[in-house]
């Protein structure tokens, strides 16, 4: 090995080591994310319990709940877009159970669909408690004139409907409202791209190694 090859060799080895370490880190992140998603799946599909007296946004996220009560006449329409389906409105309604009034995300209706009247009499609802993080600095304020909201803001919706700041995402109701299609909580919106990131870093490491080997070969050819 000539002196001219030492610096490119060190540069190549350090670069490969960095890229491999980044790929390894993404593999570890993948294992962590898959474990987290499995825990979320288990929590979402667990046996439903009665609505607790108090709820914690961290400990009770996705908590399965079953309650019997009555829907109020008021509601909020939240614009939503579904893949392969198109735009629609989520229907958020007040729901009174055991002397308390919470909110229930009953599901979605088409943009042009007619909103059915709330069921009369008692309804048993089963779903998951959730605090969606859909509001950011780019989210428009609700369009009161057209009765359209652009995100689910639990505190603001509760103030509008006069309920507790508790949102249950409906999974099933008895009796059901056929005109409204439930959109149950799922992990579908939680990204898990760590495998593709790991493949990218390891691929770059292979390319870096190949370029380094080619450069060293060229240097050696010139010194022969």
From TrEMBL:
Gene Ontology annotations for the cellular component aspect, listed alphabetically: plasma membrane
Chief localization class?
A: membrane
Keyword terms: Cell membrane, Membrane, Transmembrane, Transmembrane helix
| Cellular location(s) | Cell membrane; Membrane
InterPro entries per the record?
Answer: Surf1/Shy1, Surf1/Surf4
Bilayer-crossing regions: 195-217
The entry assigns this protein to a family as follows: Belongs to the SURF1 family.
| Name listed for the protein in its UniProt record | SURF1-like protein
What is the organism of origin for this protein? Litoreibacter ascidiaceicola
């Amino acid at each position: 090995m000539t002196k001219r090859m030492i610096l490119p060799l060190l540069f190549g080895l350090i670069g490969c080591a960095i890229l491999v370490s980044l790929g390894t880190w993404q593999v570890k992140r993948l294992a962590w994310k898959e474990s987290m998603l499995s825990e979320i799946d288990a929590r979402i599909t667990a046996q439903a319990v009665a609505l607790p007296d108090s709820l914690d946004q961290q400990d009770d996220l996705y908590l399965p709940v079953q309650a019997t009560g009555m829907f109020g006449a008021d509601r909020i329409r939240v614009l939503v877009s579904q893949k392969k389906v198109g735009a629609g409105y989520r229907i958020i309604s007040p729901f009174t159970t055991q002397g308390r009034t919470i909110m229930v995300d009953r599901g979605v209706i088409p943009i042009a669909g007619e909103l059915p009247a709330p069921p009369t009499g008692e309804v048993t609802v089963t779903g998951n408690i959730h605090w969606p993080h859909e509001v950011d600095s780019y989210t428009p304020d609700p369009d009161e004139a057209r009765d359209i909201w652009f995100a689910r803001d639990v505190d603001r919706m509760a103030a509008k409907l006069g309920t507790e700041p508790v949102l249950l995402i409906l999974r099933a109701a008895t009796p059901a409202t056929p005109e409204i299609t439930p959109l149950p909580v799922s992990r579908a919106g939680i990204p898990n791209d760590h495998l593709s990131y790991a493949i990218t870093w390891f691929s770059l490491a292979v390319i870096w190694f190949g370029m380094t080997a080619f450069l060293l070969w060229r240097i050696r050819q010139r010194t022969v």
